[in-house]
Amino acid sequence: MPVTATTDAGPEDSRDQRIAQLEAENERLRKIRDALIVRVESGSAHKPEPYAVFEHSVVLAEQVRERTEALNQTMDELKGSNKALNRAREEAETTRQRLVDAIESIADGFVLFDHQHRLIQCNSRFRSYWKHSGLEVPPAGTSIAEVKARAVSSGLIIEEHVNASSEGAVFLLSNGRWVQMTERSTREGGLVVLYSDITDVKNSEMARRIKALEESERWIRVVTDHVPALIAYVGADMTVQFCNKVYEAWYGRNGESPLGKHLENVHQPELYQRLLPHVQRVLKGHSVNFEFEETNDTGETRYMLRAYVPNVDVEGQVTGFFVLIRDITDRRKTALALEQAYDNLERRVKERTAALTGLNNQLRQEISERAAVEARLRDAKMDAERANLSKTKFLAAVSHDLLQPLNAARLFTSALLEHSFGPKAEGLVRSVSTSLDDVENLLGTLVDISKLDAGVIKPDIMAFDLRDLLNNIAREFRQMAMAEGLTLDFVPSSAVVESDSQLLARILRNFLTNAIRYTGEGRILLGCRRQADHVLLQVWDTGPGIPEDKLTEIFQEFKRIRPTGSQPDKGLGLGLAIVDKISRILGHEVTVSSVEGKGSVFSVKVPIGRLQPRRPAKDGSREVSNHSGLGGTRIWVIDNDHAICQGMQTLLEGWDCQVVSAVSLDDLERQLDPAKSPVDLILADYHLDNDENGVDVVANINDRRQCPAPVVMITANYTNELKQHIRELGYVLMNKPVKPLKLRSALNHLLRG
């Protein structure tokens, strides 16, 4: 490709004009000199006076001498100018060659355009992009728009990504390399374009994203492997795409994993034919619950309770279904034993009655035997109830261990969603986030039901203002409603009620979740009505409504009423069952009324309360940021789980916070001085290692500081004692798993006072 040197043509043209003028002047002087000589030589014909002729000759000679000296001086100046011109040409050539060498030495592709944005010069690296694809390099004079159009149409550029936060556009070339385009304007109005190879950076970034996804998948598997049930996910093609260890141990044939296999190859032929109608039903969008007795390859026979829940995409298509199988063999055996015992008892009573008619002693003996059998039946029933209660208490007790890795996985995926990826990687991240939401909803619902059944949750009744509770719930669900194309209207209230604020909020959230889930279009209303001695909190919707004969069934476990034509959902039918249990604990009456085709209204009646006098603020000297958002906020994160620390730091730094994370107080002291280092907020986990807890660690830090820092305490402990203790200390309490949107709202609210 020709290279055009940029030189200043103005001085050279001026010298050429000056030389031409001097040469013309020199020629004119020579003509005058020759004419004077001829005149002198021919002057004798006129016979002038000798003295006059002599005087005239002297004047002419003097003029000739002066003109000759001027001509010689001019010639000297001309020679000097020629030498200076030659030196300037040599220097310009040297400078041009150096510029060409410098451009060629650049590792990036270099292109120079003039003030009309037409190509002037480019280096060999830029030309190699075209030659590698077998294309002709654009010649000089080609416009920048034409260069780009030829690159796209010829297939040189496969993908183009433009991000407002990056310095320039990023292209994927046909040779598999990634380049970033950077533009700089020249002083004359031209344009310099650099194409930097960022393939290694892209590959490193993709490797980090893949590693994060693999870590999230590992945590999901850890959670599901510790759930005492068979869990799996089956795709629309009826192949097992995910299963936990319990499922794999039961259905694995000859030590082979069922992953990737068709259900026909996973189950025995007879069992597969029995399951097929239920599978076909769930693939049509219906949730299915049923019981089967089955035998595995080792000959072990168990009785299984199965739940099939369809997985529906945004377009309403079933992409697969979740499988939850619980072993109810012991419960079934107990029921059969009770039934058999009752049958035996009835038979024996008839035999004894017929055989011992008129025999008083034998009758008394029969009565004694009957009483003994009934006692054994009561004992068997009590054993079954204790076994069921033991399972419930176990699931409630391990909620912290189940929620800890799930909390870390949610923090990592939320942090990934804060960044800008390519379409493929971003889709994978959103799929993982959606799967985590499904797992969290499933586990959270099961744990809540278990805790309510086991009596772990005790209400913390106190008087509080409804203003903040309703405002936070409305702000949380307004975005969810907008995402579904619905309008959420909210009527604020400052009424004071007597209740447990967290449990009451859970009731309202379940009401709103159901309203958004089953309302296809229209609006949802959240508000309250004051009555004589209570407040009626209500959620109205414009959904399809509920048949009158089904109004009592919707509060049963695993019971869902889906109107004809409505879209299938991922729920388990436990939301209103949880509402019913919580309302019983709180002593609040829950009612529902509905008109088919128009909508429904769910209400909870809460007694009116009276606020206690507020305590004076501890210290109002803390400096509060005047700007909105979290940019620049200094936060210390203390958690004994490294994964939680890393996930929380990644999430908060994505919000432009300055984060220092530590697994203990000693770890924090190794990084900074807790007494003097600036901090806006401390975010601590209650459960730490070595018999430490977050309350003691934060108290130790604030005792050293002149101005105590505000605190957010995170825990999976739901006891009223801890809740009351945190409230008395003036800290903000959040339960696991922490939702990023709720955390960000709490931080904004706390930092703004």
From TrEMBL:
Q: Give its E.C. classification number.
A: 2.7.13.3
Q: Which residues carry this modification: 4-aspartylphosphate?
A: 685
Per UniProt, the keywords (alphabetical) are: Coiled coil, Kinase, Phosphoprotein, Transferase
Give the Histidine kinase domain ranges. 397-610
Q: Which residues form the Response regulatory domain?
A: 634-751
Q: Which residues form a coiled coil?
A: 19-105, 328-383
Phosphoprotein found in the keyword field: yes
Name of the protein:
histidine kinase
Lineage, broadest ranks = Bacteria, Pseudomonadati, Pseudomonadota, Gammaproteobacteria, Pseudomonadales
* Enzyme class per UniProt: transferase
Keyword Phosphoprotein applies: yes
- Looking at the record, the residues that make up the PAC domain are 288-340
Under the heading SMART domains, the entry gives: HATPase_c (SM00387), HisKA (SM00388), PAS (SM00091), REC (SM00448)
Under catalytic activity, the entry for this protein gives: ATP + protein L-histidine = ADP + protein N-phospho-L-histidine
Known InterPro entries for this protein?
Answer: CheY-like_superfamily (IPR011006), HATPase_C_sf (IPR036890), HATPase_dom (IPR003594), His_kinase_dom (IPR005467), HisK_dim/P_dom (IPR003661), HisK_dim/P_sf (IPR036097), PAS (IPR000014), PAS-assoc_C (IPR000700)
